[in-house]
Amino acid sequence: MADNQKTLKAPVAFSGKGLHTGMESNMTVHPAPAGSGIVFRRTDLEGRPEIPALADYVTDTSRGTTIEKGGAKVCTIEHIMSALWTLGIDNAVVEIDAPETPIMDGSAKDFAAALSETGLEEQEAERQYYEVRETIEFDYPEKNASIVIYPDSKFSVSVHVDYHSRVVGNQYATFSEEEDYAKEIAPCRTFAFLHELEPLLAANLIKGGDLDNAIVVAEKEVSDAELERLARVFDKKDIRITDGYVNNLQLRFINEIARHKLLDVLGDLALLGMRIKGRVLANRPGHFVNTETARALKRNIKRDANRPSFVYDPTAEPVYDQPYSAHPAPPPAVPARGQDIPHRRNERSRHQERHHERTLLRRALPGRTCNAGRAHHRGHGTVRRDTRPQQRTRPGELLHLFPPHRQCAVQEQGGTGRYAPVRAETHGTHPARHCCHGSESVCGRQAHHGSVADGTGSQKQGMTARKAAPSRRAAFSTICKPVRRAPAVRLPLGGKRKETRPGK
């Protein structure tokens, strides 16, 4: 549910000296119309110039955040901005008669208490939010710092500080929307290290600094002479150091330094001009890191202005609702065995086509390998392949080749070069295949399937047949009669040979 913008019910006034300038400052926070944001107005300058509290107008971040426009500037705005933004004030005019806001006690405690007591007034305009939809990382290696923002439906900040100090150590602080800012974060004071005071005084940066409005951390032992000199500088009777803190200071929280850094992060991120829905993790933050992050977020907002926004709302009515069924649809039926399935039908067609091609090619194709008479390596033949090793014949040996129904004499020299019964078409068997015609085979190697030598020294050729079925293996004991064989006669493609038998 969208919420509306808010402003103050009545003006709230503050007075005090500035931390760096040391000048007395009178500041009044007035209500403002919806959509105007937070604006600083210099009442001590001619024309009462106004400076919007936005990251675009940040000009200096040394020991504080300074905004400037048209020559008019206001320094150290982070504490009042933190209180206004965190307490839910979207529109306000801050009138001030000095270049710096009052430091008060170094925290935002007085600001938060007075603003909460005055009360807020709801306005008609809706609040604007920057919704973080993806993880955004900002790395600052020169400062050894980083800020990471994660997507979240609410706003929260976690801070880690490490100054390599034996007194401060590593400190963490966390704040979310559900926590009480006025009690948990606002009372935390600003701080400085003792070894930084001399350079700050020399640079006229802490003219309004006092041991009552800042935490001073002492890392090393300090001599009595140095303590006396510091007492004169801060206009104190005496200065003592206890447990690493000057003048026996009592911390309001054990991690007060980390909480004050979180206070600064809230005040600097308020310069974005709208609220954030996301989870911020800040490691060693500072005013420079915080304001640069706000600048980058403003660029992201301008970039994403024309992009479509997709937000998932679990409470919204669904666009398409599939009703629940206690009896879900059954899985698709498994086809029965033998049922015609498209992919199986295509596979069967390819198988038949390959088988048809094999019936047309009766002879072996030229090549290095001769597989005449053997079963096809793919296993499509109807006759089983005999896996027993074959023995090559030597001169003077005969070869057992053919079953009884295939035994015959080989054509005499001068014939067609093929044995008499070229085809023996029997049911369940393939025609005999051969590739050796004459003294050399078609594949270019010398015939080796059953060759023997006669008494004259000429070679006799036999032909290899396909291995018979297991029931016919006993018939291989009969010897094929070897005869002289004529060389092969090559015919053009599609030519025919005249088959003759001996004696015809």
What does this protein look like?
There is one protein chain. The chain is of the alpha+beta class. The chain has three domains: 4-189 and 253-306, 2-Layer Sandwich (Ribosomal Protein S5, domain 2), CATH 3.30.230; 191-246, no CATH class; 392-490, no CATH class. It has helices spanning 78-86, 109-118, 181-184, 194-202, 224-233, 256-269, 287-303, 342-360, and strands at 4-8, 12-17, 24-31, 38-42, 50-52, 58-60, 66-69, 72-74, 92-96, 120-126, 129-131, 136-140, 145-151, 156-162, 170-176, 191-193, 215-217, 241-242, 245-246, 275-283, 452-453, 459-460. Strands 11, 12, 13, 14, 15 and 20 form a six-stranded mixed sheet that branches. A five-stranded mixed sheet has the order 2-3-9-4-5, with helices on one face. Strand 21 and strand 22 (459-460) form a beta hairpin. The protein is elongated and about 115 Å long. The N and C termini lie far apart (110 Å). 29% of the residues are buried. Residues 379-384 and 419-481 have low confidence and may be disordered.
